[in-house]
Amino acid sequence: MFTGKRVLLIVSGGIAAYKSLDLVRRLRERGAAVRCILTKAGAEFVTPLSLSALTEDKVYGELFSLTDEAEMGHIQLSRDADLLVVAPASADLLAKMAQGRADDLASTALLATDKAVLAAPAMNVRMWEHPATQANLALLKERGVLTVGPNEGDMACGEYGFGRMAEPMEILAAIEEALAASPAAASGGGPSLNRPLAGLRALVTSGPTHEPIDPVRYIANRSSGRQGHAIAAALARQGAETTLVSGPSQLPDPAGLKTLHVETAEEMLAACQTSLPVEIAVCAAAVADWRSVARAQQKMKKNGAPASLELTANPDILAELSKAGDLRPSLVIGFAAETENVVAQAQEKLARKGCDWILANDVAPASGTFGGENNQINLIRAEGVEPWPQMTKLAVAERLCREIAATLGR
Length: 410
Ligand SMILES: Cc1cc2nc3c(=O)[nH]c(=O)nc-3n(C[C@H](O)[C@H](O)[C@H](O)COP(=O)(O)O)c2cc1C
Known about the structure:
By secondary structure, this protein is of the alpha/beta class. It has two domains: 6-185, Rossmann fold (3-Layer(aba) Sandwich), CATH 3.40.50; 201-407, Rossmann fold (3-Layer(aba) Sandwich), CATH 3.40.50.10300. Helices cover 33% and strands 23% of the residues. It has 14 helices and 22 strands. The chain has helices at 17-29, 48-55, 66-71, 74-79, 91-99, 105-112, 125-129, 131-142, 168-181, 226-237, 265-275, 317-322, 342-353, 393-407, and strands at 6-11, 33-38, 59-60, 83-89, 116-121, 146-147, 151-154, 160-164, 201-206, 211-212, 218-219, 241-246, 258-261, 280-283, 290-292, 311-313, 331-338, 357-362, 374-375, 377-381, 384-387, 391-392. An eight-stranded mixed β-sheet has the order 13-12-9-14-17-18-20-21, with helices on both faces. Strands 3-2-1-4-5-6 form a six-stranded parallel β-sheet, with helices on both faces. A two-stranded antiparallel sheet has the order 7-8. The radius of gyration is 24 Å and the shape is elongated. The relative contact order is 0.09. The model is unreliable at 183-190 (pLDDT under 50). It binds flavin mononucleotide. Residues 12-16, 39, 41-42, 90-93, 122-123, 127 line the site of flavin mononucleotide.
């Protein structure tokens, strides 16, 4: 019902916060990606760990967090979703929304968003009936904020009346209605300004591969998966129905897309082939070029070390996708990680592999590319070389998406 939809759920400080855990579960069951902001007071009622386990994503709480800003700026967080849902919406947060205050992450995201907002108020009946709360609600509704509930009934505080948060199923129905009504949330149709890649399918590979020698040892490389994951998340944000095929990585699965986990190059190729057809393929994984010919079934003993390790070439995923016949994506993009003669080697690779573009980057230790936040790209096409300035991997992902959208006439 919600496949491909992204909901930013803001959980504020009220007893009903426990029902939001159920709401997350039900949204996820129906295919939505859910990202959570938990207010400081909200964290007194439910733990970030519970929300994180249910969303399979990080839970955001701090406005002034360097890590969160680097990974997902607060503005990005507010724009990234199809819909913002505030459940429970405390009297306090409703007042802040009405006043346009932005003194924590939840209120800042609500002020910075350009998406529809649905609030599920929950509070003591006297708080609900107070003229201040009613005036705040009236103002918010006038500005287009959607609401669901509250319901009438017994309250946790022992009183009776209106103020109980709507049940998760009622909130789900309101979310469905809000998504259907919100133009920014529409997907599957043609491209829009916000989601220029809507209606297209994308495949991204990311991370290293691990090539086993025995059950505990493997051949690997230093790739973190940061660039590939950022590209997959950016393509999904721009509306593409995205599959990420990820080698072993410490990074969480990005929201709003399908992630397939693999270990070896052969598994990665098979996962890519089952993900076709797509219009866009970006091979950002640092696939091991070789694997060990022998793969011991038991751990090799220290004193029984082989005199040498015989290696054999792994499949070339970029080349395979480039010559996939009828299933060849319209745009096949590869990466060339080099430590010297970066551009010349990448130009040669473009011709040899038969792909459309190569993003060449310098991965010499001094560049700090592997595992770092930044990247310096040369975009190599048959027409020529375009050097990009040094920028964050998130910015590289955004710029690549713009290039893709422009090339595909979006
Ligand atoms: C036990 C307890 C239960 C509370 N329940 C509610 C509630 O259901 N609704 C509400 O609006 N405030 C409730 N509050 C008060 C809010 O937690 C408080 O106003 C807080 O500042 C809200 O912060 P937030 O809006 O940033 O989450 C409760 C407080 C306590 C101590």
